[in-house]
Amino acid sequence: MRAAQVSKLEGPESIEIVDIPEPAPQPGGVVIDVYAAGVAFPDVLMTRGLYQMKPELPFVVGGEVAGVVRSAPEGAHVAAGDRVLALTMLGNAIAEVAVVPAAMVFKLPDAVSFEAGAGVLFNDLTVHFCLRTRGRLAAGETVLVHGAAGGIGTATLRLAAPLGAGRVVAVVSTEEKAEVARANGATDVVLTDGWLAAVKELTGGRGVDIVLDPVGGDRFTDSIRSLAPAGRLLVVGFTGGDIPTVKVNRLLLNNVEVVGAGWGAWAMTHPGYLQEQWAELEPLLADGRIAPPAPVLYPLERTAEAVASLENRTATGKVVVTLR
Q1: 38-53 exposure pattern, b = at least 16 Cβ within 10 A, e = fewer
Q2: CATH of the domain at 91
Q3: Residue 248: what pLDDT?
């Protein structure tokens, strides 16, 4: 099978399209013919050996797929011919065939294409975890998201209102990205330059209830300042590069929280949690209450370029590689 493989840790440009043997069937594994695979920021870090999980070289990049079941264990919730999504988590996704434990495979709603489906699981399940489990989103609250034109950002814009938010504020760096944010459901859009003052004005000085931050870096302290009393800042990642620190007196003065939101670690230590998430999200996707993502598509041959678009921050929305 063809696959996007890393054999040296020199960044996205080191990804090569190679022919390798199909993965061997595994007990309890579902064999999937992959039509499309999602790309996420951990893929960037893994190509440089900078992620906390370091697979042995060579490895196949990507952590989520959409495709058709070739075979499944007897008694599984999916069967040959089913359209599915699946999580390979760290590697083994951008290849023509994947073998995935049945617990990590989910039926793809008929209304969602393979290309859109490949962009659902990583980002939508992360955002659902952030808003529901860690952020404790209450009906009518205001959610702000940094990096709003990126994968996590656009997922937040798509999910926040269906999950109960009354207002969704997008922070973006350019007018082009502002259009992407509006198209994905932002009720308000502000530019990075001067964003805190703009948000204070938008909210009449009160601030926002939840900040979802996949960026980190130098805007972190202002994110705390942007919170309303009892507000929650959700730490999702550090695509900005720098890992910020917090002076805890800021939390005390306004009764606000900084909350870690590591979906992968939570899902791996809470059996059944992924299925609980999908049980809520699948009907919302199926009937259109949550719009499927509109990913940026790259053919398999351009996987290196697809991953690089996340590193150089030119990507808008979810990035997906097509294989069939």
Answers
A1: bbbbbbbbbbeeeeee
A2: 3.90.180.10
A3: 83
